UniProtKB/TrEMBL annotation:
InterPro entries: Methyltransf_11, SAM-dependent_MTases_sf
Highest taxon listed in the record's lineage: Bacteria
Name of the featured protein: Methyltransferase type 11 domain-containing protein
Species in which this protein is naturally found: Streptomyces sparsogenes DSM 40356
Any Pfam family hit: Methyltransf_11
Domain named Methyltransferase type: residues: 22-59
Length: 286
């Protein structure tokens, strides 16, 4: 579903054979796989070992650089590292990630040249509050910036305006079930761990500034979510992890039922489910 976002960012930043890319919150590795196919050396970190294992399988099975895109592009190294409680620096230390581009950020030519943080797509609400998930995220961004070459781009992403993101109405179901006080919390306030909220107009900029980064451009990308049928849509949305807290607070059957009800307006005559979304990304500089 997010391929248009990744492609737009990589095209704009000209990601290719000279790129050393660090993906924060890389999940199951689709964005890394696309960067590797363009010839980039990639390193990904994520706290979920099961998703990292899927990312490893994908990267090992990749056929090589995209045909015709980068003639003669060499096979590039890929590193995947679990992000533990010790922070990004500790996670990368002694893992061999240096071979994929980590460095000291001192202009030595060994640092990362692009950092992506697509993870805020599933955690926005983190940019404006004085505390909460945004603190941890800004800390990781600052740590990543220390591993990047000066002037390198750091990419943040978030949902666009709720009125242009049909999926937001469904994601609010998970927030409501997990946190009965969700409707009373002010937009931009410090979110609970289970809470989802749309990205405010300047949330990405605030997050970048808190991490010591300099905003340097942004863009919007259409990323429709399409599913073959209602069951596929429910399973796909559950796979995001945004409904885990709701399942713990209620029960899986109830969560599935309410997701299906929220999806009903987006079910088309042929049974497919289609939700139009606009996502926003910000490019900041180290």
């Amino acid at each position: 579903m997010l391929v248009p976002l990744y492609e737009a960012v990589y095209e704009r930043l000209e990601v290719g054979t000279g790129t050393r890319l660090l993906g924060l919150g890389c999940g199951s590795g689709l964005a890394l796989l696309m960067a590797a196919a363009r010839g980039a050396a990639v390193c990904g970190v994520d706290p979920d070992e099961e998703r990292l294992e899927l990312a490893r399988e994908r990267l090992l099975a990749r056929p090589g650089p995209r045909p015709g895109a980068h003639p003669g592009a060499p096979e590039r190294a890929a590193r995947l590292v679990r992000l533990g409680d010790g922070g990004l620096g500790d996670a990368l230390k002694g893992t061999g990630a240096e071979a994929a581009g980590s460095g000291t950020g001192t202009g030595s030519g060994t640092g990362f040249t692009v950092v992506t943080a697509f993870e805020p797509l599933s955690a926005i609400g983190s940019g404006g509050g004085p505390s909460g998930p945004g603190d941890a995220l800004s800390g990781r961004l600052a740590a990543a910036a220390a591993l990047a070459e000066p002037g390198s781009p750091v990419v943040l992403a978030g949902w666009g305006p709720p009125e242009r993101c049909a999926t937001s109405t469904v994601l609010r179901v998970g927030a409501r079930l997990a946190d009965p006080m969700f409707p009373q919390l002010p937009l931009g306030g410090a979110p609970s761990p289970a809470r989802w909220q749309p990205c405010g107009r300047d949330d990405l900029e605030h997050l970048a500034q808190r991490a010591g980064l300099r905003p340097d451009g942004s863009g919007r990308v259409a990323c429709p979510f399409g599913y073959a049928d209602m069951d596929s849509a429910v399973r796909g949305l559950l796979s995001t992890g945004l409904f885990d807290a709701a399942e713990r607070a209620t029960d899986p059957t109830q969560v599935r039922k309410e997701i299906a009800e929220a999806l009903h307006p987006y079910r088309r005559a042929d049974g497919t489910v289609w939700m139009e979304n606009v996502l926003r990304y910000l490019i900041a500089r180290v």
